[in-house]
Design goal:
homodimer
């Protein structure tokens, strides 16, 4: 089958990759649409030593699953962590933190930038009919944005700052907007500000932030300067959510966290249900983030586009 | 009056300091007993540019307060933050985080290493009769330890690691022991381990920690290596409480926090009520931490003792 292959930080288009074979409890899925995420770009930079097909944001169709399971022919999205089901984390219901997990397109499990992929049936969620493929392909990053609402109580009177209006920061902003909180977003690029403004989300530049302090700050840039800005912008007793990973180590003054009793909460994947619910009710609209859709044989061009400064969502359509 | 005076990181014994005069709403307090804390030692090292009488852990007797207030003659301890009562933090009930606060013996308010001190009546708590001066002088650091229970739910099934068994770490351990959680304490010195063991608290050395992971880790060393150990010892989705400040900036890998969805919570002062309650019920016994009590005119020797590696509590008795 056709697919992108990553090895030694080099991405190649390969014509004759072996089509994956589902084992018991797994489904073969034809990929309809897949999204390029910052993690994919970081894998190329060697953030994690992955060899295989990248891609973990997708919507597809089940083309091979035991008929008694009822999955055959269903349009699906899939949770990306493949858990062992037996370790302490799995037994405690935290299978996204499974000690032996493999991760679709990221660690030891071939991903979505190919004609087909395989996932355990337990990872699949059927996509309701009202959700387009273009919206459904955002389920995974939208679930990551929804995870914030599981970690911190955000009510209407809270002042909330999102730092970063890229692919993930924008989705975070849309999700937080549904809470009715007093939301502002630091956006670097004019096109990012335009899209947020069209959705009635208040934006500002880093320079215009001044000394204003917020109850809750979401760091979604993955840069040390974003983290510093988060610390400068948080009220005493406030909560900073870290939504992006950082390359290497960062110099940080932890004493301010102690004196001001700040909470710093790491936030990664989320469960798919709330994300699919937001999409089904059209409470969020991620489609406005799509900049371009490439065919799979233009996959390298798609990655090049996604890597441009300020680029929003670039999709790959294998079909 | 007699007292210790700190200026330009130099501590002196002064014979004729001006006795403080209480303003409206304040009380004059004769200091019965005062404790030396790590923050006092750090003020000497220039951690914060304070000039004045240090000391913020004390028990004393009200010798001058308006008679209608009922405070005259009472044995008291006092909260250390003097709040403005008007800023956003004060209005929100977070007067310990007042934007304009002064702090007893730390910032712009003379402290307890003297014959007398002054505090607002609002800061005072009467010490119940059953609590000795030797126990009551620990109310402030004990309140700081109790603050942890306000910030994170610690139930019996939780595994909890306290890193550091010095003055504060030991009190944290005693407070956590009251929850019935599965508690272990990393203690560096044999005498620290001995005291904890005598209270049936399980101790271990850093070397024997291995790769065991805990639900909750309390960092009470104030050293970068303690912070690193906390990160290495925490389970995914766990909570690290930072109970000490750190000198300067620290190199830290924030990506692990994100991937493992760790919470890092700064923790400083606490309210005095729960601490006084624990003392009144004899659920904790801080007196075992007292290494020596010096008279005020031996105050410099007391500081020298408190500054020794592994030293526990050193008291100063002005009377």
């Amino acid at each position: 089958m056709l697919g992108l292959w990553l090895e030694n930080q080099k991405l190649e288009l390969r014509q004759s990759l072996v089509e994956p074979l589902p084992k018991t409890g797994e489904a073969l899925i034809r990929v309809c649409l897949a999204g390029i995420c910052s993690t994919d770009l970081e894998l190329l930079k060697g953030y994690y030593p992955y060899s295989g097909i990248p891609g973990h944001e997708f919507v597809g169709e089940v083309v091979n699953a035991p008929s008694e399971t009822g999955w055959q022919g269903k349009r699906v999205v899939g949770e990306i962590n493949i858990a062992c089901g037996q370790c302490e984390m799995c037994r405690g219901g935290l299978d996204r933190h499974c000690e032996h997990r493999r991760t679709l397109g990221i660690h030891d499990w071939n991903g979505a930038f190919a004609s087909f992929l395989v996932l355990p049936l337990a990872n699949l969620h059927e996509v309701p009919g009202g959700i387009s493929d273009q919206a459904a392909v955002f389920t995974e990053p939208l679930a990551a944005a929804c995870e914030i609402l599981q970690q911190v109580a955000i009510s209407q009177e809270k002042t909330v700052l999102v730092i970063g209006a890229g692919r993930l920061g924008h989705l975070v902003a849309q999700v937080l907007q549904t809470t009715g909180c007093r939301l502002e977003v630091v956006a670097r690029y004019p096109h990012q500000r335009r899209i947020l403004t069209s959705r009635h989300i208040h934006t500002l530049s880093k320079a215009s932030l001044g000394s204003k302090k917020y109850d809750i700050v979401i760091e979604a840039t993955g840069s040390p300067s974003g983290l510093l800005l988060a610390r400068q912008s948080i009220k005493p007793r406030g909560t900073i959510i870290l939504k992006s990973t950082y390359k290497g180590e960062i110099q940080f003054n932890f004493s301010r966290l102690v004196v001001d009793e700040i909470s710093l909460i790491g936030s990664r994947c989320g469960s798919f249900e709330p994300a699919l619910e937001l999409l089904a009710r059209a409470q969020v609209d991620p489609v406005c983030l799509i900049e371009e859709t490439y065919s799979l044989d233009q996959g390298l061009e798609a990655f090049s586009h996604a890597g441009r400064s300020g680029a929003l969502k670039v999709l790959i359509q294998p079909g």
